[in-house]
Structure formats: C-alpha cells, structure tokens
Design goal:
Protein name: DNA/RNA-binding domain of Phe-tRNA-synthetase-like protein
Structural class: alpha+beta
Pfam families: B3_4
CATH superfamily: Phenylalanyl-trna Synthetase, Chain B, domain 3
GO molecular function: phenylalanine-tRNA ligase activity; RNA binding
Radius of gyration: 16 Å
Distance between the termini: 14 Å
Order of helices and strands: EHEHHHHEEEEEEEHE
Organism: Hallella colorans
Oligomer: single chain
Strand order of the largest sheet: 1-4-7-8
Length: about 220
C-alpha cells in the first residue's frame, strides 16, 4: 500500500509524518489481557491528566491545530485519540468491539495520535492519498452515519474517503474476519521518533494478541 500526502496537507502541516503499518492477522471477539493494558492506561491518565490538560499532549495539540487550519472545530469533531482519553478521564467505559479495534484504540491512547485501522482487502486500488474533505463529500463514519468531513483531513482510495482522525469509514472497517490489517498513524506534530515508536508498538501488539506476522511499517510525508 502506497500513501501519498497531498500539497493541501503539506500547506497546513509541512512537518507532517505518517506511518503505514501492515500485517497479516487473526482477529478475535475479546482479549482480556489486552483490556488489562487498556485499563492500566486509564489509571495512569486519571492520575496525571484532566480533560483540559490532555489537549496539550503533543499529538493531540498538533491535530487540533491542523483542524483549525482546515476550518474544522476540533471540539465538535474531536480527534479520536482525544475522544478516547477524554472518555477515560470521565470514567466512561470505552466501547468494546473486537480485538483488532480494541488494539488500535490502545495504540492511539498510548501515544496520543489519532490512527486509523482498516481491512486492507476492502481498499479500492493500491494507493491512499491524504487530503482535505470537501463540502458535500459523502462519508459514512463508523457508527456515526453520514459525517460532514468538509475541512477534515481525509485518506482516500480510488473510490473515495476511507479515514479521518475523527472517524474511519464503514466501507473499509475491520471485522472479525479481517486478515490483512493496515494502520495509519497521523503525526501532525512531526515527531518522527514517536511515530516510529507507535508503529513498532502496534507491531508488537498484533504479534502478541492477533497472531500477527509479515508485520512491517513505512513512513510517509
């Protein structure tokens, strides 16, 4: 899978660095050990953060800044990492879907980057392009219905949008039958070392909890 960063993203965030993680996996409905890790992060954040101070985490702060530069209100269309950690701080349970979805959420929580997890076999074509959503561009967010992505950063395949930092698309979502995983990490803060560490963390998680193999990642700018 090739990922291209458009000029319109480069203009609002010239330091952007992303990572594309790919792996062959075996999904499951639930993994208690994985949830033990998720809950440990919740304990840590409740002891160290507030719903205001979490906005200062590097990845979240940078994503919010890009939203504003693109014309989107980040408090109305919250980046996924912020929304997940915010739920933890409010003592609200995270939604449990399946092991791949829960794993991607953990990786986002741990590093503060809004990342997308996809069933790669559902992509149309072999190239994804990161651009900015347009007015009236159709987009069905997972569990959210039709989502107004005008002004949101968005990955598109040959058919259309597949992922934004707020919500991924129903068309390419992971399921219990997913065997080819693609995860996209959005480093709007330009911290290449942290993006690499997040990618390596995901590879470790898929090997540990999803029988992951042929796991690799590449950076893109």
């Amino acid at each position: 899978m090739q990922v291209i960063v458009s000029k319109e993203i480069d203009q609002v965030c010239p330091k952007f660095v992303g990572a594309c993680v790919q792996a062959k996996v075996k999904n499951s409905k639930y993994c208690q050990a994985l949830w033990d890790e998720i809950n440990a992060w919740g304990d840590k954040y409740r002891a160290t953060l507030t719903t205001e101070s979490l906005k200062e985490l590097s990845g979240i702060k940078a994503t919010r800044k890009v939203y504003r530069a693109c014309g989107k209100d980040p408090s109305r269309y919250r980046p996924a990492a912020e929304a997940l950690i915010r739920r933890m701080l409010q003592n609200k349970p995270l939604y449990q879907r399946d092991t791949l979805v829960d794993l991607v959420n953990l990786a986002s929580i741990a590093y503060g980057y809004s990342i997308g997890g996809f069933d790669a076999d559902k992509f149309v074509g072999d190239t994804l392009t990161l651009g900015i959503g347009r007015a009236d561009e159709p987009y069905e967010g997972i569990g959210r219905g039709m989502l107004n992505i005008d002004g949101l950063p968005v990955y598109r395949d040959e058919q259309g949008g597949v992922g934004t930092p707020t919500s991924d698309h129903e068309r390419t979502k992971m399921s219990i039958d997913t065997t080819h995983l693609v995860v996209l990490i959005n480093g709007y803060d330009g911290n290449e070392d942290a993006v690499k560490a997040n990618a390596e963390y995901i590879i470790g998680l898929v090997k540990k909890y999803c029988d992951g193999h042929e796991a690799t990642y590449t950076l893109y700018r």
